[in-house]
Design a protein that fits this description.
It is a single chain. The chain is 0% helix and 52% strand. It is an all-beta fold and 117 residues long. The protein has a single domain (2-112), classed as Jelly Rolls (Sandwich), CATH 2.60.120.10. A hairpin with a 2-residue loop joins strand 1 and strand 2 (8-15). The chain is globular.
Length: 117
C-alpha cells in the first residue's frame, strides 16, 4: 500500500502485531514534521541518496531541545528511540530509505510541521 505524503511517499511493505517495515521516499527539498513517538521505536536504513536527520539525543521533546544534524549515506542506519525528537529531510536529491519499527503506525506527536498538519 502506497501512501502519498506532502514530502514524498511511504509504502507499507509489511505489518503485524510485532513489527512493520516501510519504504519511504523523501523528495528533494522536503522534510517530515519534527516529531516524537510515545511507544514506537524505529531503525532507518538508507537505500539511495542522502538523508539528513535532525535528532535530539537528550530526549527533551517538551522544551529546550537541541537538535544534532546527521547525514546518512546509502548503507548507513540509525535507530530512533521512543520519546526522541527527530525529523528527516532530503536536501540534495531524493532520499529513499527503509523504516523497520514497532507496529504503532499512528503514534506521531508533531512539534513543528511545514505542511500544517
Amino acid at each position: 500500500m502506497v501512501i502519498n505524503k506532502p514530502w514524498g511517499q511511504e509504502e507499507l511493505i509489511f505489518k503485524n502485531d510485532k513489527y512493520m517495515v516501510k519504504k519511504l521516499t523523501m523528495n528533494n527539498g522536503h522534510r517530515c514534521s519534527l516529531q516524537y513517538h510515545d511507544f514506537k521505536i524505529e531503525t532507518i536504513y538508507v537505500l539511495e541518496g542522502l538523508l539528513t536527520i535532525e535528532i535530539d539525543k537528550s530526549f527533551s521533546h517538551h522544551s529546550n531541545y537541541k537538535l544534532e544534524t546527521l547525514v546518512l549515506n546509502p548503507g548507513q542506519f540509525l535507530t530512533i528511540h521512543n520519546g526522541q525528537l527527530h525529523r528527516m529531510s532530503a536536501v540534495n536529491g531524493c532520499a529513499v530509505y527503509l523504516e523497520s519499527s514497532t507496529p504503532e503506525i499512528d503514534d506521531v506527536k508533531r512539534i513543528e510541521d511545514d505542511y500544517h498538519r
